């Protein structure tokens, strides 16, 4: 094939390196799916990135087949289709009923609906260079949407000043992949391959820059673990409005002292109360209840962040 022609050595180099680096990008979610397999639960993760990545890889494969002489583009997106299919299968296996239903719905609409429509509309009415051009620009639109998806993570990092959900390794390989495929598209004089990777390069650089700025900021979950549980003990005396915060280890002694003082005051000042009066008994019970210890637990509430995955299909 022309791709292995000695007159195009750099084309082969960029394509081969693009394949190798994109493999790392596709394999980035493996630790997540190991957790899903171990926990037997999807743990709140979404299937959208994997379905979109599968859709994108299938489109690029179709484009490479009709374009011809793009064996390296076919190889990496074939790998992407296999990997994303495995991810989606594992997700469906351990997802809840509602998550499984939404994933199937998304698969039917994107793969069974939109991809089939694109395939039929471009395969029969169009032919030759026009078909390649139309499919190529459709791939550009999808690739731009896939590359733009991690922008939500960028905004979250800026807002929280934390890189908890921004893995540096993925951003690094994403940037390298964009460089390799941009060079491949440029040498082939194919804007449909080169153009989306310009956006991918700048997005990867922004992510790495943000990681460098906020990498020392500790995640919210870790900060919550370090905040000790703070308990304030409050003693309410009688029906008065006086509130006495005390230390927890002295609670019992303080209660005894307060009860003794209250009993002495009542024996000196208060007249004797007949034992058969229910009203007095009720009042006395209220006073005793008023001397009990009230504890207010001021423990910080735990915040659960929705796990976010960034998966980008190779161009």
From TrEMBL:
GO terms for molecular function: sugar transmembrane transporter activity. Keywords: Cell membrane, Membrane, Repeat, Sugar transport, Transmembrane, Transmembrane helix, Transport. It is a multi-pass membrane protein. GO terms for cellular component: membrane; plasma membrane. It comes from the Eukaryota. One of its GO terms (biological process) is carbohydrate transport. The chain crosses the membrane at residues 6-27, 48-65, 71-94, 106-128, 134-158, 165-187, 193-214. The keyword Iron-sulfur does not apply. It is found in: Cell membrane. PANTHER family: BIDIRECTIONAL SUGAR TRANSPORTER SWEET15, RAG1-ACTIVATING PROTEIN 1. Belongs to the SWEET sugar transporter family. Mediates both low-affinity uptake and efflux of sugar across the membrane. This is Bidirectional sugar transporter SWEET.
